Amino acid sequence: MSQRPISLSWDLQKLRSEGYDLEIRSGFLLVKDVPYVDADRQVKRGTLVCQLALAGDVAQRPPDHVAHFIGEHPCREDGREIEQIKNQSRKQKLAEELEIDHTFSAKPKPADNYDDYHHKVTTYVAMFERYVQAIEPLANTARTFPVIEPDEDDPDAAFNYIDSASSRAEIGVVTDKLNGKRIVIVGLGGTGSYVLDLVAKTPVKEIHLFDGDELLQHNAFRSPGAPSIEELRAKPKKAAYFKTLYSKMHRGIIDHEDYLHTGNIEQLRGTDFVFLCLDKGTAKSGIVARLLEYAIPYVDVGMGVYLAEERLGGVLRVTTVTPAKRDHVQTRIPFSDGDGNNEYAKNIQIADLNALNAALAVIKWKKLCGFYSDFEQEHHCTYTIDGNMIINEDRPS
Predict the structure, then answer these.
(1) How far apart are CA 334 and CA 347, in angstroms?
(2) CA–CA distance from 102 to each of 40, 99, 350 (Å)?
(3) What is the pLDDT of residues 161-181, one digit of tens each?
(4) What are phi and psi of 66, to 5 degrees?
(5) Which CATH number does 164-393 carry?
(6) What is the pTM of this model?
(7) Is the pLDDT of residue 139 over 70?
(8) At what angle do helices 190-199 and 238-246 cross, to 10 degrees?
């Protein structure tokens, strides 16, 4: 089944976002799992069928007020057929593998035809559901929210199932700004794994994962998800583990079971954005130099958490580097591993702080893509735990 007419037609898209189970077959719109009452006063489910008018794969106004039905004739709560919609009841083959049992006729008031397919489908479904609700008030609805797979022949599909969240929120045009991006995440510790969790929910084309570490027990307490004891005992590489986890949802996740360094950094050529989530500052120097050479924008994250008087305090950092602002790299990104003066060198990590650090980084990336508004265009952001304070600095001159 092609998803294209549904994705291009606002009325079909609205039906899908509201949870209706839609299928397009042989020029007809099928609405499946529609509840109705049969002659024995039992609640059953059938399929509403409407002729689909298309122009360039976009749904037009329905050509008539007629609808077909696969199933028994819908009845009132007392088992009597709904007479006002009755037209004819006989099996009829509308197309190959599409045979209907009934044809209904219900004109909307005051017009003779429906405004669009959302208007038509919801009107017919409401006629059936009012009697269903009289028998089972809480149990039945046609809005079943089925899992929807992309077209099999769509090479650009980012997910194994369609992103119904964007269509439901009606932000598809905004989400499309992330399509086709090739993203790199360097380091899959606490913050990097949460970056992956957030980026995996966007329609980017590829997500490259670089990390040579094994997934160990302490990692389970500062990463998204919940690995089993068996998985931890196997000590998988982080890159392989997280690829397996998120490939259930997102296609195009590529694991590199090695640390990123100057010997393999050529693999980053042609990518669109890099998230640097490394604990060690010394590992960043060569990488940052090449990213500047390749003109690849990136975000570098850092966390400095300390223990004082049996409480934790500290600062989270998100430093962004783009062609518009790159002269702050040496003053904002630490390149040492702990000389006593590096407040980001402490290795205390807490899951919620990792998640917040990742969220701030991903939000900044989305700002650069035009997903979010970015009036300040800050290229350096810090969050201080004590005081719950965010400071934005380093705007392009």
Answers:
(1) 14
(2) 18, 10, 61
(3) 888 888 778 888 999 999 999
(4) -85, 145
(5) 3.40.50.720
(6) 0.84
(7) no
(8) 30
